[in-house]
Amino acid sequence: MNVVDNIRLMALEKTVDYLYENSPYYQRIINSRKIKICSLDNLSLFPIITREEVTTNLAELRCKRSFPELVQYTTGTTGQPLPVYRTMNELLTIKEIVESVVPDSKALGLTLRLVGPQHGIQGSAIEGSPTFYVDVSHRNGLEYAKELLTAEHRYEDIVGYIEILIGSLNDIKRLTIHLLSKGVSPENHKVRWLGVSASYLTQYWRHLLTDFWRAKILNTYGVTEITGRAHECFICGRFHFDPYVIPELVNINLEKNQYVENGIGRLLLSSLYPFSADLLLLRYDTGDLFELYPTECSTGIPGFSFLGRAKHCLLLTNNEGCHCILTVAQIREFVDGLPDIALETRGYRVEHLPEQSLGRPCFSLNLEKGKDRVKAVVELGLRYPPYLYPKRIEEITKCMKKHLMEQNATLKEMVMIKECDLEIRFFGSDKVLPGVDL
């Protein structure tokens, strides 16, 4: 057993004991299934819990030990936003981990954290360096962030510019567009680390952010319901999860609860005590698809690649199981930055920013079943009527088919053996397609 798994096993043993004493929901499960933790494999004795089940059983799931100091809300992409409460003990536990890695937090440099009212404001207890907080969901916040980034700060023994910028990808995009519209150049700031989260970072935006900020990107994945994240590795480019969260990959449709040790599966996450103390969830179904690479990284830690929400991906179930034909990530890699694609700007755009500069690309994925084969259909929403530019439509179709066949071996094989057809359809304003986020 490696060091990370050993940490997780010890924390899981404490977590199950804690849940037995404090959570009526898990107490019933532990009693009925006679669960005892001897290895990480014993985690599979617990049932998978979905977002709907959390909402229904929230009162019995929570371990009400002390009044929470912080409340955050999930995005609501899978239903109504769910309140997640954090206690000061949880925040201090995470702070101890940060300080064990960097004892002198001031050595990290000044930090600017972009926050939004929908997720609550992070408590300063968990920051690893002196931090400013700014809400950039409005014009004044964006302008204030610009002033903070371009000014030198002096307070007691802290002297210098902001060197770390942290926020959701959408907030960082919003700030970047604002700074570009104001003529701010890389020479006007000193940011060297860019921490992004909460959405899929395509190569288009990765290059744009790197060119403007000239900073190292720290890309993270996480869900509000679970304490603990995954961080993109600079060596292999995959995500590695924190030691204080347990990731599992199971078969896509969850029916047989089979582990995926190599390949595509559905991600389950388990939170651990004492990093979570109020709402602890074991084997929580994130609803996200990942691809697992067990031995690719030289660190020896399994790597995960994010593919998108299962409900947005194109899945085909047959006698051999459930297969992923197309993923949202593969579509986003192609359409992001393509000027032809319409964007749904609701919830993204600030009034003074350029129209259609930010938003969710409008597209949909559908599977049409015929007599002897299936058809994978990609519908793209355009900013113009497609009949006006037939040569452009032909060019996009050719390039997109080539891109998708290169990115997806399953789709390519099915097309070659004539089990599947791939069709790209285009719509203007005559059909409203949903904006798809990750």
Quick synopsis:
This protein is an alpha/beta fold. It contains eleven helices and 22 strands.
Provide an overview of this structure.
With 438 residues, this protein is α/β, with parallel strands linked by helices. It has two domains: 3-307, ANL, N-terminal domain (Rossmann fold), CATH 3.40.50; 313-427, no CATH class. Helices cover 28% and strands 27% of the residues. The protein has eleven helices and 22 strands. It has helices at residues 3-22, 24-33, 51-56, 58-61, 88-101, 139-150, 169-181, 203-213, 328-335, 390-407, 409-416; strands spanning 70-73, 83-86, 110-115, 131-135, 153-155, 158-160, 162-168, 193-197, 216-221, 230-232, 239-241, 245-250, 263-271, 284-293, 303-309, 314-318, 321-326, 343-344, 360-361, 363-369, 374-381, 420-427. The model is unreliable at 119-126 (pLDDT under 50).
- The average pLDDT value, as a whole number, equals 85
Q: Which stretches are low in confidence, meaning pLDDT under 50 for 5 or more residues running? A: 119-126
Oligomer: single chain
The residue fraction in helices comes out at 25-40%
Between the first and last Cα atoms, what is the distance in angstroms? 34 Å
Strand order of the largest sheet: 4-3-7-8-9-10-11
Kindly provide the radius of gyration, computed on alpha-carbon positions and rounded to a whole number of angstroms: 23 Å
Assign the CATH architecture of the largest domain: 3-Layer(aba) Sandwich
Could you state the CATH homologous superfamily of the largest domain? ANL, N-terminal domain
CATH topology label of the largest domain: Rossmann fold
